[in-house]
Amino acid sequence: MAFKDYDFNDTYFASFDDEKALVTKDLQVYYGDNHAFHDGNLSFSRNKITALIGASGSGKSTYLRCLNRMNDNVARVTGEIMYRGTNINSDDVNVYEVRSHIGMVFQRPNPFAKSIRENITFALKQHGLTDKSELDQRVEESLRGASLWDEVKDRLDKSALSLSGGQAQRLCIARSIAMKPDILLMDEPASALDPISTKNIENTLNQLKKEYTIIIVTHNMQQASRISDYTSFFHLGHALEFDRTERIFTNPHVKATEDYISGNFG
Ligand SMILES: Nc1ncnc2c1ncn2[C@@H]1O[C@H](COP(=O)(O)OP(=O)(O)OP(=O)(O)O)[C@@H](O)[C@H]1O
């Protein structure tokens, strides 16, 4: 798609005086010679949902995947990702530990070919949790957190592959929150789902933000405006604007954002 010539210096980043769960500074991402993402300076507020929006290929997933080091071995990432006072983009950081604090839910539900229960207990056991009553409790807590408990409580030992797409995606959310992370990254978690399952996921996210900080990539602008507190607009590998969601969707500062949300883009 050919885009109008937007000015990459036409940017606006609102700042808010709330507690930050994650901050990126001068994040740059390179796939070989392709400088795919530039100057990522964004802050994510604790217990809020931030949506990343923008056209296909604007760099949303590229940026999101850096935040828990999913781009390791795929891309070269420079700059800082500050989490609890540590730059987690540094070589000496244990990426498995990073991912236990910063979980990821992907676009397509990807449950393991194991029982519903084992999908949740698998990583917990790998992290050394063996007590059966504690594992049972974590299974119930996580499934309740993902709004799935009532639908599956009588078939926990059945295969997760028997779940519908919407249920499987909520199982993947349950699997992520079983590790008790701080931050959940979600890459278009509802795009493969029907409207009712999408609504269930959105309701689940609204519940989850009481305990988690959520960063979500979505193509669905109604979804971004329904569920997120803050929104950042991405264009051709640049974050151009960040503000309260309501402001972005009613009166953005940046011309490219305005064109995108009003459908006059490209
Ligand atoms: N693994 C990869 N190897 C090489 N280039 C990649 C890779 N992943 C993404 N890119 C490139 O980086 C740029 C940004 O892609 P990215 O997937 O981050 O965009 P996006 O905004 O998430 O798009 P979409 O909404 O379609 O998922 C694109 O030019 C894409 O071709």
Looking at this protein, list some descriptive labels.
ATP binding; ATP-binding; ATP hydrolysis activity; alpha/beta; 26% strand; globular; 11 strands; seven-stranded mixed sheet; 266 residues
Any overview of this molecule?
The chain has 266 residues and is α/β, with parallel strands linked by helices. Helices cover 34% and strands 26% of the residues. Strand 2 and strand 3 (34-45) form a beta hairpin. Helix 3 crosses helix 4 and helix 3 (116-126) packs parallel to helix 6 (165-178). It is globular. The model has no long low-confidence stretch (mean pLDDT 94). The structure holds adenosine-5'-triphosphate. Residues 31, 34, 36, 54, 56-62, 74, 219 line the site of adenosine-5'-triphosphate. Keywords: ATP-binding, Cell membrane, Membrane, Nucleotide-binding, Phosphate transport, Translocase, Transport. This is Phosphate ABC transporter ATP-binding protein PstB. Residues 22-261 form the ABC transporter domain. GO terms for molecular function: ATP binding; ATP hydrolysis activity; phosphate transmembrane transporter activity.
